[in-house]
Amino acid sequence: MLPARSQFPEGFLFGTATSAYQIEGHGFGGAGRTHWDDFAATPGNVVRAETGARACDHYHRWPQDLDLIRDANLDAYRFSASWARVLPEGRGTPNPEGLDFYDRLVDGMLERGLKPALTLYHWELPSALADLGGWRNRDIAGWFADYTDVLMRRLGDRTWSVAPINEPWCVAWLSHFMGVHAPGVRDIRAAARAMHHVLLAHGRAIQTMRGLGVQNLGAVCNLEWADPVDDTPEAAAAAARYDAIYNRWFLGGIFNGAYPDLALEGLAPHLPQGWQDDMETISTPVDWCGLNYYTRKLIGPDPGPWPHFAEIDGPLPKTQMGWEIYPQGLEKFLLRCEAEYSRGLPVYITENGMASAEVPVVEGTVDDPERVDYLALHLAAAQRALAQGVNLKGYFIWSMLDNYEWSLGYEKRFGLVHVDFDSLQRSPKASYHALARALARNR
Ligand code: FCB
Questions:
Q1: CB of residue 127 inside a 6 A radius of ligand 1
Q2: Is any atom of ligand 1 closer than 6 Å to the C-beta of 293?
């Protein structure tokens, strides 16, 4: 069972999250080509070579989707805008239809009493900018600031919060070192540059929005707790290195203006000259900290090149993604964040949720008790962190709808609402109904 709203502090926000490319349908409305279209068109990158061309067709069905969010008794909706929908070439002439779409969407949220929590970049880089080196090119910080300016002049008077970049680790390391996400690069020098430029773009966007007077600006990082596979010093060192690259690089840059030594040890030779001079921009003050949390990793040493670590299959129960269920990691990260990074700023859990295998829709709903259990375990972890003094202000569930799960295509279902990808019919799952009951109150 999910804890009731009344078991959280007054004003604690509950929301759900989605992203543009994963739900909108990028084939509509004059959106430009993105590096995800290119990545998916390359054999072997994406399950069944699926793309976001139609996705959930949220572009046309958004009123119904916003109704569903309101009717779940949620307070806020974390969504993203697509850079390539706003600026099809990444720079230059905006697409008026794209700007109008986000304008209506934000008004639609406000009409329904939902707080619009906007993310400016959730991974669909315009191909035209990818052609110029994308996140490897330092100029991206300026291109991103310009995009921020165009979009926020239009929306900035009505957004409730804004975060420039969703999950910089995924933008940089997952996509340029591991090659798992677009652009599918596996190169340490590219990764180091992307890790720095993504934060520089974040800082430039914050400064741009401050200049426009946009309120409530934050940062959203994804975190994975790293546990050493055994009690050897080698495993402990490998886990610490993993933690430095995955978790401490981005929070450290944004909140402390410093990168961790354990990551610099391998990345410094590949960073652009004079990177130290950017740390002030990168750590431009923000108003809140967002943490996305799903799982932990068991880490052991690896004899290969730096970073000398390997992920090892863990023993805990797993979700459809193969991710271990480990709510203790969320509690530990919230405490760490409060002590070492956010230091009293409001903290939000900006994503948490699980994928579960497809089960048939029966009488308009889907039974997903495992999702209710997962959410309950993580909400309990959030309550423990609150009791220990973390300034936690809200919790967003990933995701509202089953959607395009990137290189894993449409098969991994994270939604509170089931989507039939043939008919596009939405069917609220049992977890959706449980949530609506838990959050019910006199509005
Ligand atoms: C996060 C992403 C989101 C989705 C979930 C499962 O890393 O922000 O788009 O893929 O994981």
A1: no
A2: no
Residue from 169, 173, 292 whose mutation best tests the ligand 1 pocket (most atoms within 8 A of CB): 292
How many Cβ atoms are within 10 Å of 117's Cβ, its own excluded?
29
Q: Quick one: which of 275, 269, 305 has its CA closest to 189?
A: 269
Active-site annotation holds for 167 = yes
Out of 3.60.21.10, 3.40.1710.10, 3.20.20.80, 2.30.42.10, which CATH number does the structure's domain 5-439 have?
Answer: 3.20.20.80
CA 301, CA 38: separation in Å to the nearest integer? Answer: 34
171 C-alpha to center of ligand 1: Å? Answer: 11
Token couple for 113:
């009493």
Catalytic residue chosen out of the listed positions 224, 338, 351, 405: 351
Catalytic residue selected from 167, 224, 331, 338: 167
DSSP line for 56-104: T-HHHHHHHHHHHHHHTT-SEEEEE--HHHHSTTSSSS--HHHHHHHHH
Amino acid at 164: P
Q: Distance between CA 66 and CA 401 in Å, rounded?
A: 11
Per-residue pLDDT of the chain (443 residues; tens, 9 = 90+): 999 999 999 999 999 999 999 999 999 999 999 999 999 999 999 999 999 999 999 999 999 999 999 999 999 999 999 999 999 999 999 999 999 999 999 999 999 999 999 999 999 999 999 999 999 999 999 999 999 999 999 999 999 999 999 999 999 999 999 999 999 999 999 999 999 999 999 999 999 999 999 999 999 999 999 999 999 999 999 999 999 999 999 999 999 999 999 999 999 999 999 999 999 999 999 999 999 999 999 999 999 999 999 999 999 999 999 999 999 999 999 999 999 999 999 999 999 999 999 999 999 999 999 999 999 999 999 999 999 999 999 999 999 999 999 999 999 999 999 999 999 999 999 999 999 999 998 64
Ligand 1 neighbourhood includes 79 CB (under 6 angstroms): no
97 annotated active-site? no
Cα 437 to chain centroid distance, Å, stands at 26
Query: Mapping DSSP to helix (H, G, I), strand (E, B) and coil, where does residue 12 land?
Result: coil
Q: How far apart are CA 296 and CA 226, in angstroms?
A: 6
Q: What is the pTM of this model?
A: 0.98
